[in-house]
Design brief:
GO cellular component, one term (chains A, B, C, D): cytoplasm
Mean pLDDT of chain A: 97
Radius of gyration of chain A: 20 Å
Strand content of chain A: 15-25%
Enzyme class (chains A, B, C, D): oxidoreductase
Shape of chain A: globular
Number of strands of chain A: 14
Largest sheet of chain A: 7 strands, parallel
Oligomer: homotetramer
Order of helices and strands of chain A: EHEHEEHHEHEHEHEHEHEEHEHEEH
Number of domains of chain A: 2
Catalytic activity (chains A, B, C, D): [amino-group carrier protein]-C-terminal-N-(1-carboxy-5-oxopentan-1-yl)-L-glutamine + phosphate + NADP(+) = [amino-group carrier protein]-C-terminal-N-(1-carboxy-5-phosphooxy-5-oxopentan-1-yl)-L-glutamine + NADPH + H(+)
Function (chains A, B, C, D): Catalyzes the NADPH-dependent reduction of [LysW]-aminoadipate 6-phosphate to yield [LysW]-aminoadipate 6-semialdehyde.
Number of helices of chain A: 12
Main location (chains A, B, C, D): cytoplasm
Strand order of the largest sheet of chain A: 3-2-1-4-5-7-6
CATH architecture of the largest domain in chain A: 2-Layer Sandwich
CATH topology of the largest domain in chain A: Dihydrodipicolinate Reductase, domain 2
Distance between the termini of chain A: 35 Å
Helix content of chain A: 25-40%
Structural class of chain A: alpha/beta
């Protein structure tokens, strides 16, 4: 396989580190550079101990970045915007894992990120890198914007239902159980282990930024309300959504909507079992994998539909779907480097 | 203090064990007997290792039960009904921790418990032992029915809002993060540690039995939908509810509704801070205590109100509020034996 | 009961916060002041959320400290030494929870703390506040030095064996499983939840400072080697020690040594069961309590004796035994304010 | 690659399930059959939810087993012995993950397993499948006995030191922190989540069976004492060993002993860092991988050497080293199918 070079900007964080891990195991990629201002000069395994013995790469300062076939940006939100032209020039394909270019609507960006987007004219040039929704666009895109982890969990679970027109036009309530890795690698009092362990912290009761991505990518821009609760898992998201089925539709139609949408998808599994210990999606099962598991339960007498999804926020929620999109873009098998099945137990 | 005798039926389970623990530390109670069919003859500390050195009580078989001032029943749902008359005759005050006599409406019982109540005429004779709602009735009740843990978490959080008429007449969606102790002391494949640890199991997406208690005790029998997710905490419940405020009401009115309802309550705290690590209710903070912490967040532009509560399912959710009710019934200080403040960290 | 005033220096840390919690529930103590430089002016419950609704105390800066009957110092090691005279003058009884005055031998201090003790002549004036070893001295002491948590776990487990002369004169190897709260309230990269959760970190393979306390307080200053491993429990210590019984002694003699030493002790339990789930000491069982549970297993054919102990590092390991010593000093019942039995499950 | 057929006996357990997971991802293996008496007829993913969408295999009853190139036995200890001839006839290469054929010395077997070995004459025909120790023998072996997980952790950490003759002839004390998956898939009161979570259970203070494997495979059959403590991790082992270096040897010699022994080993990493958060082996880092990380710390003034190792009990401890041995036996690259690097965080 003809290897493409890839450089990772912001490789000491969890998103960048996860992309690095996946890229090192990918037969089509050759990681040439990984930047970190703070850890410049150190072996990457000082920060990511799982990579000990897997690579002799050292972090370089961002100033030393050289052009590569693919540039992956794993910077805090907004940092890319400050050096937009420079980074854009350093990769034939640029894949941004931050929120900077996920949205198409500048008004939504301003509402959720608190300031006008500095390059609104650039927004249409980026493709939202969710393979299940935008596979065709991804094939030819040179600017790929990775989706938010909570947005991925919510969007992929709800999309087939909206596309098939099964839901009543009422607000959908989404509760997201998220993980401590979602807050990033930066330590502070809020992540101090004795305080954080065992704590279930209502992190965003209202106003979650990923709402913008969800709403913008669902047909008809429905009213969707997100509440995020940070538990003390290290990885994983469990999403539950509350909606109502339109009269006349049944569980069978819901099944069919998911099958039509995802029947051919390599990383979406519909999980709705009558027996076994893991009858519905569970973050434990998908930990470390690129799967999103989706299930649902219909309350027959009220039409209430509870939709459930689970994924690993750092894999399918971030670095995994980004690599999946890259596989599509490069014409490689879509599952390449993403076939880890997860553990039991 | 003049001690009252108390006998506990079903003392090897978690609810009975917790009541036993609290009763042993209560200056007004003398535990005379604790039954367990399986562990008859064994010291109670064989099952409840925290009680080693605290009591020399042994479990007795239920047949050897003798009359006591207070009989506490901590049996699986339905077991009390099978020997109703017998148990009723063994205590001047009978306190049942099961679901057998929580409801007033036989139709609700049948809907949620799948069979007609065998003694529907007895239902009105029982008082639902939630002090914050029924303190006056509890003072003179000889038959007290402890509330469900999830019902307590939901009911106490929503009651003031319904009482004050602040909410739009739309369905309220409740998501409950529950614990593994809620499933009881009986081991099985579903509770096997390697399978259960790290698992977030959607336990009841729809049809949760505690819905009946919630609906019956809220003014106007509103439409409330419960979804319960069992995380791998051992104790604790975090409840979030999604509702909409009626036009014209503000955050201030919500505050006032809670203050009016709970301003004098010894075990309800309103938690809504602008700083600190624990700004909203958190099961970590209330673990082991008889507190229910309640908070809320209002989304100004939509009127969406997210209500949050946290409690320990075995204390405030079960044995603690039962003992609180007993304190009221006996004319003792309401906080007697319930003053444990919880840990940090 | 005639209340004594108590002021706590360094009350925002975990040791100080735990003493504060215990003191607030103690009928003989009135907490008058709690210092914290960083949180001066804030309610103590901002830092210790368990104390919400239990006290309206606010932190004061250390400069505003006024005299009290009892002064409790919960400062980082060495901080007391910098203002020794001043603090000494602020309490009739001074109780120091740091390592500054635990040792009698200045050489041991220098070896383990890396510098000469600045007030070696003061060391004999302090009483090592371990009730089981020094109860009589504590009764009249005005200067009490709380023991280290790991030292307490090790010392109390080994003391009866050395006193009874049961062990061969060979090195004893001690492995301590410790908790994340042991590292204190200060956040940093090493305590960042995603890094720390699930991690078993060999924290001190050799050279643990508490070795000094152990060796100094065991008859004959035996050779004891400590290895401390920090797991991701928040609280608790599990100690195992490896020793060899002298020829001629049996399990029965070990039992007797413990019974003689601790038969009357209110907070020491010998745990060595043939059935049940908790046959040996377990930090889960003693969490939040002032108990130290001690057990042992003898390998008949080799004479190897494995000694096991468990305690809560913040209670029996720090604030609890300090309060127990204070109870002794004040002539109060020794268990006053320390009767929490712990949870199950 | 020419695929070999493999059948797995006892595939519903954790060891068998882990081998199945690895085998499904191995390009040289084709899993033809998986047996489970209890789950015969069910899809394997009912029991191992991580395998959903990865295979359509169903469990078969052991009676339906057919010959395969490789037969992997993952049965409870002793079960293989009951049908020895039959199973032996079903695979050209037989790989047994139980303890039935790990030992060479029948006396050691009888001492630790409590009965004489029924086929002592067969013991020499089996090769102990630890690649680092017996690679050459494995190349031609048709009967491979997988090592115990705790034995692997201990043996590989100590072997180089004994081989190089660096240790004093004194007993070595080994403390093993083990996991709940080590007790297998069978549920029961001892593994009930509310009881097990947070519990640190001294599981084998003395008499651990893996002692036999350790002693038999170390030069000179030294005196090694094992104590196993089951924490509530699901996977992983952290081993610490306490020994004394002979006079004249230094840290440098220890380094060299490890380098000589493992310098070319693909799955052994020496971890001894001066900076970073993971300075010594940590089960968190190796979770899911086939690595064993080994480190050490020397106490200069006493010569005490603390040796530390970490591995995943189900991978390097069981199924992973078994597959590694199989790779060697089949002439495949030794790391084939075993290249998962583990997670961070």
């Amino acid at each position: 396989m003809d290897r493409k070079t890839v450089a990772i900007v912001g490789g000491s964080g969890y998103a960048g580190g996860e992309f690095l891990r996946l890229a090192l195991g990918h037969p089509g990629l050759e990681v040439t550079q990984v930047t970190s201002r703070r850890f410049a000069g150190e072996f990457v395994h000082l920060v990511h101990p799982n990579l000990r013995g897997r690579t002799s790469l050292k972090f370089i300062p961002p100033e030393k970045l050289e052009p590569a076939d693919i540039l992956v940006l794993a910077l805090p939100h907004g940092a890319f915007l400050e050096e937009y032209e420079r980074y854009l020039g350093l990769g034939k394909v640029v894949l941004d894992l931050s929120a900077d270019f996920r949205l198409k609507d500048p008004a939504l960006y301003e509402k959720y990120y608190g300031r006008p987007h500095p390059f609104p004219e650039e927004l249409p040039r980026w493709v939202y890198a969710v393979p299940e929704l935008y596979r065709e666009r991804i094939r030819t895109a040179d600017r790929l914007a990775g989706a938010g982890c909570n947005a991925t969990a919510t969007l992929l679970a709800l999309y087939p239902l909206f596309r098939a027109g099964l839901l009543q036009p009422r607000p959908v309530f989404v509760t997201l159980l998220i993980s401590t890795s979602a807050a990033g690698r930066e330590a502070g009092p809020a992540s101090h282990h004795p305080e954080r362990a065992g704590s279930y912290r209502v992190y965003k009761a209202t106003g979650h930024r990923h709402t913008a991505e969800v709403v913008e990518n669902l047909p008809g821009r429905p009213e969707v309300h997100l509440t995020a609760i940070a538990t003390d898992r290290v990885r994983g998201i469990l999403m539950t959504a509350q909606a109502f089925l339109l009269d006349g539709w049944s569980e069978r139609d819901v099944w069919q909507a998911y099958r039509e949408a995802y029947g051919q998808e390599p990383f979406v599994r519909i999980v709705k079992q009558k027996k076994g210990l893991f009858r519905y999606p569970d973050p434990k099962v998908v930990e470390g994998t690129n799967y999103i598991d989706i299930g649902f339960e219909l309350e027959a007498d009220t039409g209430r539909l509870v939709v459930i999804s689970a994924l690993d926020n750092l894999v399918k929620g971030t670095a995994g779907h980004a690599l999946q999109a890259l596989n599509i873009r490069m014409g490689w098998p879509e599952t390449l480097g993403l076939d880890f099945p997860g553990f039991h137990p």
